[in-house]
Amino acid sequence: MQVLHGIDLEIAQGEFIALMGPSGSGKTTLLNIIAGLDRADSGRVVVAGVAISELRETDLARWRALHVGFIFQFYNLLPVLSAVENVELPLQLRSLSRKERKEHATTALELVGLADRLHHRPGELSGGEQQRVAIARAIVTDPSLIVADEPTGDLDKKSAREVLSLLEQLSAQFGKTIIMVTHDPKAAQSARRMCRLDKGVLNSVAG
Question: What domains sit in the chain, N to C, each tagged with a CATH number?
Answer without folding.
Answer: 16-206 (3.40.50.300)
